[in-house]
Amino acid sequence: MKEKAMFFEKLKDKIHCYLCPHNCVIEDGHVGKCQVRLHENGELFSINYGMITSMALDPIEKKPLHYFKPNSYILSVGSFGCNFTCSFCQNYTISQYIPPSQFMSKEDLVETILNAEDNIGIAFTYNEPSIWYEYVYDTAKLLKETDKNKSVVLVTNGYISEEPLKALLPYVDAMNIDLKAFSNRYYNDICGGSLKPVLKTIELSAKSCHVEITTLVVSGENDNIDEIGELSSFLSNINKDIPLHLTRYFPRYKMKSPPTDIDFMYKAEETAKKYLNRVSLGNI
Ligand code: SF4
Questions:
Q1: Which of 4, 130, 131 to mutate to test the pocket of ligand 1 (most atoms within 8 A of CB)?
Q2: Strand order in the sheet with 151-156
Q3: What secondary structure does DSSP assign to 32-80, as a single string?
Q4: What's the pLDDT tens digit per position in 119-165?
Q5: Domain segments of the chain: what residues?
Q6: How many C-beta neighbours within 10 Å does residue 232 have?
Q7: How many Cβ atoms are within 10 Å of 237's Cβ, its own excluded?
Q8: Residue 254 — very low, low, confident or very high, per pLDDT cuts 50/70/90?
Q9: 26 C-alpha vs ligand 1 centroid, how far in Å?
Q10: Structurally, what CATH architecture does the domain formed by 51-282 represent?
Q11: How far apart, in whole angstroms, are the C-alpha atoms of residue 99 and residue 64?
Q12: Tens-digit pLDDT profile for residues 237-250
């Protein structure tokens, strides 16, 4: 469904979207880099509003969140689109393409959240929630107004501008933020983004809600001990208790390099533990 977007300004015959740091300037009849924000006759629309591609009741540990309401289940939903183009994307069928989806109003989603048995709330995941902003914001707000004890979780790449992030944070209880690497080159070449805005998102979010970080360690790209040290040191300066999930890469989508060396994963864990109290390995 098409819904009027937030966080844009009209230029002469174009539109500037400032939801995320890409700051797209979009011509009439075109979409931004995320493929889901459309300029139509001087207005910007979210074209994935309420469009759901996946829904499941997942263990919270699968997000991954290891220190937020452990051993619970959370209703998890995703749409389509992404503001990154990671070569190794695990969910490229919904992040880089527009697959079949089904509309669900925010009221119906809130009712589903409340009626699902043993469910602690809602996780916006699978594709990037920040470019699903209007629906995520509306649903999170309605859920909190209906039952403030239900949790709202975001699993995100953290590539969102400060103003929309600050508007959403009051309704968010926990986030898993990807810190894909600690180099701008990696963000540019592999993800189509930049590092600095993600670091800002982590700093701001950690002041407001529970935050855990995931870093996919990719062979030949960010499997560098010094970089793991710098990344861990940055997180420890915010809070030494921020959990860091170091996940082993396996070939996927366009990235064909071999799986990350297991010995390196253990070395990375050892290095991260010099700075952080909660480090775990994934995909080992
Ligand atoms: S949200 Fe989409 S349209 Fe807006 S700036 Fe980011 S990539 Fe561009």
A1: 131
A2: 54-59, 73-78, 119-124, 151-156, 174-178, 210-217, 244-248, 279-282
A3: -TTS-EEEETTEEEETTTTEESEEEEEEGGGTT-SSSSTT-EEEEEE-S
A4: 999 999 999 999 999 999 999 999 999 999 999 999 999 999 999 99
A5: 3-46, 51-282
A6: 26
A7: 10
A8: confident
A9: 9
A10: Alpha-Beta Barrel (3.20)
A11: 25
A12: 999 999 999 999 99
pLDDT in tens, 35-74: 999 999 999 999 999 999 999 999 999 999 999 999 999 9
How far is 157 from 139, CA to CA, in rounded Å?
A: 20
Is any atom of ligand 1 closer than 6 Å to the C-beta of 19? yes
CA distances to 90, 121, 173, 177, 192 from 86, in Å: 9, 29, 27, 15, 7
Among protein residues, the one with the nearest Cα to ligand 1's atom 3 is 32
Centre of ligand 1 from the C-alpha of residue 51, in Å: 18
Tell me the residue ranges of DSSP E strands in the chain: 3-4, 8-10, 14-17, 25-27, 37-40, 43-46, 51-52, 54-59, 73-78, 102-103, 119-124, 151-156, 174-178, 210-217, 244-248, 279-282
Any ligand 1 atom below 6 A from CB of 24: yes
- 44 Cα: distance to centroid of ligand 1 (angstroms): 11
Task: Return the SS3 of 178.
Answer: strand
> Which DSSP category does 258 fall into?
P
pTM: predicted TM-score of the whole model, two decimal places: 0.97
Mutate to test the pocket of ligand 1, among 3, 34, 36 (most ligand atoms within 8 A of CB): 34
DSSP summary character for residue 227:
H
Q: How far apart are CA 280 and CA 134, in angstroms?
A: 33
- Quote the crossing angle between the two packed helices 106-115 and 133-146, to the nearest 10°: 50
